[in-house]
Amino acid sequence: MRHVIALDVGGTGMKAALVGAGGELLHQARRATGRERGPDAVVKAILGFAAELRAHGEQHLGEPAAAAAVAVPGIVDAAQGIAVYSANLGWRDVPLRRLLGDRLGGVPVALSHDVRTGGLAEGRIGAGQGADRFLFVALGTGIAGAIGIDGGVEEGAHGFAGEIGHVVVRPGGTPCPCGQHGCLERFASAAAVSQAWADASGDPEADAADCAKAVESGDPRATAVWQEAVDALADGLVTALTLLDPRTLIIGGGLAEAGETLFTPLRAAVRRRVTFQKLPSIVPAALGDSAGCLGAGLLAWDLLETDNTDRSEVTT
User: Fold this and answer.
1) What is this structure's pTM?
2) Are 128 and 122 in contact (CB under 8 A)?
3) Using 50, 70 and 90 to split pLDDT, how confident is the model at 11?
4) Which of 287, 291, 254 is nearest to 15 (CA)?
5) Rg of the Cα trace of the chain?
6) Do 280 and 274 touch, CB atoms closer than 8 A?
7) How far apart are CA 181 and CA 170, in angstroms?
8) N or C end of the chain: smaller count of CB under 10 Å?
9) C-alpha distances in angstroms, 236 versus 52, 241, 306?
10) Which residues pair with 136 in a beta bridge?
């Protein structure tokens, strides 16, 4: 059966799948990145994992994978196939596309940013399916976004498109590691809410999920922390929708797991802030932690479609 390899590399672990032509997950697996052993060990783990998947496809699906794609965190030069930098994984300027292609017998390989890859899946086959313009925002340890246009995701001239977490929403506010003050992710990420609630509750182990539960139970301290995050998020989102005019706004990541505890006040906060702008649909992400693998699978199949188109143009 014809299939592709999809790899989603995170800070601590890797998810992977063999994906069929219809987007079906034919085989799934997980591995540790081994980042505690250094960046070279991470690259070795990725290549080894990909080789395992190729062997599984040969043995159980009757043929090796026709293409592959890998989604990684940090700064990515997708056009050149280089993983430029990742603070979590410790690498710099890794020619990951070439290394994977060599390890997988020369098949075409795509390399992409993890959030943009997950956003691609959400836009094409998840919560944004059918929308010609969407914005996917992941609220995790940080905040990142993916700008969806006509079935693809905009990377920007230098690969930095979608970095909504570093839109300044509170000028002169909390310092951010990026060098600015008052960035959105310092107020509205799951990590920021966790820290704010730990401080407010006096429990150093408390996190954003605990804050959401306290909001649901009517705790006024939690409500104040939560509303501050929602207001900051709404400010950042209105800036984004003013620039991008998306039809659908998809919110994912750990903070979105609070469901309507997040979405009800967020929709209201965005509605209060818009003036001339068209209010998009604001919906939760639908694919969960499968989004990265599914998006990588889509990228790999896109490579094959492009290759087939190119061949057709040459032969006609």
Assistant:
1) 0.90
2) yes
3) confident
4) 291
5) 20
6) no
7) 8
8) C
9) 42, 9, 36
10) 146, 250
